[in-house]
Write a structure and sequence with these properties.
Blueprint: E1 4-7, E2 10-13, H1 24-28, E3 31-39, E4 42-43, H2 46-59, H3 68-81, E5 86-94, E6 112-119, H4 122-131, E7 133-139, H5 154-165, E8 170-174, E9 180-183, E10 187-191, E11 197-199, H6 210-221, E12 226-228, H7 233-237, E13 241-246, E14 250-257, E15 260-261, H8 269-281
Parallel strand pairs: 7-8, 7-14, 11-12
Antiparallel strand pairs: 1-2, 1-6, 3-4, 3-5, 5-6, 8-9, 10-11, 10-13, 13-14, 14-15
The chain binds N-(5'-phosphopyridoxyl)-D-alanine (PDD).
N-(5'-phosphopyridoxyl)-D-alanine binds near residues 207, 209, 247 and 248.
Amino acid sequence: MSRIAYVNGRYLPLRDATVNIEDRGYQFSDGVYEVCEVRGGQLVDERRHIERLTRSLAELHIAMPLTPLALGVVLRETVRRNRVRWGIVYLQISRGVSRRDHAFPPPGTAPSVVVTARNLDFAKAEQLASEGVAVITVPDNRWERVDIKSVSLLPNVLAKQAAREAGAREAWFVDNQGRVTEGSSSNAWIITRDGKLVTRQADHAILRGITRTVVVDVATAQGLELEERAFTVEEAQGAREAFLTSASQIVIPVVQIDGRPVGNGAPGLVATALRRDFHRYAELT
Ligand code: PDD
């Protein structure tokens, strides 16, 4: 079965699904995106993803080209046409096509909308969760508005590649005070020795992950004490547990940071319980 993408109003086989070379997403990475988990063919936390998308667009002064309702229809239809049971749906909106000029294109230029969807390997994801992953740390050299989910991801790409080359799954960005901000495509968490759940406050230095928001709800229901604050690499290495969160991975235990084991070097009980309960608190539609 060939994969199908939605491009500006049409559903097309992937090989025919193209955008203009003067699309500002291509020329300037002038656009935003969302990645939403698909579970049993349903969207996980669609409402929150579309809310965040609306905010990202507003911050960049890109007009929302479809109503949230219409966008939901397109997301679901793309999932259906690709027969995704468990995987992801990807949505990208750029400022549209216009003769190359850094300044915004003329008013009325239509934003470009692209949606793709694909199945992920469920067994492999479960294996990662049960074994835990290694992370490395890299300097956070991104701009100061990474709270906007823009497609401008070059530092993230380089950080992820550095992780791969080091045999690790993820790279954690570290600010100039030695404190972890977030992963190249995930949020970062620890459980302190005295059992507190710690993740960086959601200011402009991190993306406010949708998974992060739901994990806070799960943790609260489980009676965990939450501290939203920065933590250093040393604190993370000395923590009882560490883990990362993202829409495509939910909760994945981190068992090694820069070659040092976290806790006893195996996935922790808290991370495992948060992963287990996650979908009871997420919205499936
Ligand atoms: N990444 N931080 C960054 C830099 C991210 O790219 C992501 C998600 C997150 C977690 O956000 P959420 O829980 O809403 O997925 C945090 C997506 C999955 C990606 O780029 O593929």
